[in-house]
Amino acid sequence: DVKVTQSSRYLVKRTGEKVFLECVQDMDHENMFWYRQDPGLGLRLIYFSYDVKMKEKGDIPEGYSVSREKKERFSLILESASTNQTSMYLCASSPPGRPLNYGYTFGSGTRLTVV
Amino acid sequence: EDKVVQSPLSLVVHEGDTVTLNCSYEVTNFRSLLWYKQEKKAPTFLFMLTSSGIEKKSGRLSSILDKKELFSILNITATQTGDSAIYLCALLGGNEKLTFGTGTRLTIIP
């Protein structure tokens, strides 16, 4: 089974801190994605990557950056955390081309609270 | 820009009832429509639909796609408390990105 692992389940950070959210997948997938999920807004795409050292902005990239130095790892960085970045963050991966019959594989999520 | 709208936003029914969840969409380059179930953690895959009119079925859950009218429905019959979850509809476009709707929060009362 494909596994997508997010390093922290719950995280509390202070306003202004630099925050790193880590995501690792073990199935050699090319595509990786970061979403945030908020009540009433659903899942919104922050950044995605189709390959190592490659990144593309999603729908809401402001205040975030990403790093993909190795194929299996995709990091989301909050340069200076703010309270409006309090959210559930979900990482996902998929193989390239037409996905398999199950679309993306998601990690369990990181619930980030910025105080 | 691809768009997915789900309705209702929330639904509360009694155990044993049948529910229908709706998903309408706008897309430039349609590849497939997916349904996920999300309980407390990661969304888990339910169905992927690519062709109109072909029902996908898994136990008490079924789903169908209408590419002419641009919508999909997810049916759950004989609901159980374990069906309580957020149900997410997502659109896969030509750029391999999934665009999600806001989800429908389903609550089953025993």
What does this structure look like?
The complex is a heterodimer of chains A (about 120) and B (about 110). By secondary structure, chain A is mainly β. Chain A contains no helices and twelve strands. Chain A has strands spanning about 5, 10-15, 20, 25, 30-40, 40-50, 55, 65-70, 75-80, 85-95, 105, 110-115. In chain A, strands 2, 5, 6, 7, 10, 11 and 12 form a seven-stranded mixed beta sheet that branches. Chain A has a three-stranded antiparallel beta sheet with strand order 3-9-8, with no helix packed on it. In chain A, a hairpin with a 6-residue loop joins strand 6 and strand 7. The N and C termini of chain B lie far apart (about 40 Å). Chain B is an all-beta fold. In chain B, strands 2, 4, 5, 9, 10 and 11 form a six-stranded mixed beta sheet that branches. Classes of the chains: A mainly beta (about 120), B mainly beta (about 110).
Write the layout of secondary structure elements.
The complex is a heterodimer of chains A (115) and B (110).
Chain A: E1 4-6, E2 10-13, E3 19-21, E4 23-25, E5 31-38, E6 42-49, E7 56-57, E8 64-70, E9 73-78, E10 87-94, E11 105-106, E12 110-114
Parallel strand pairs in A: 2-12
Antiparallel strand pairs in A: 1-4, 3-9, 5-6, 5-10, 6-7, 8-9, 10-11, 10-12
Chain B: E1 3-7, E2 10-14, E3 19-26, E4 32-38, E5 44-49, E6 56-58, E7 61-66, E8 71-76, E9 85-92, E10 98-100, E11 104-109
Parallel strand pairs in B: 2-11
Antiparallel strand pairs in B: 1-3, 3-8, 4-5, 4-9, 6-7, 7-8, 9-10, 9-11
Question: What can be said about this structure in brief?
Answer:
The complex is a heterodimer of chains A (115) and B (110). Chain A has 115 residues and is mainly β. Chain A has strands spanning 4-6, 10-13, 19-21, 23-25, 31-38, 42-49, 56-57, 64-70, 73-78, 87-94, 105-106, 110-114.
What are its keywords?
heterodimer, A: 115 residues, mainly beta, 51% strand, B: 110 residues, 6-stranded mixed sheet, 5-stranded antiparallel sheet, 11 strands, 0% helix, 57% strand, globular
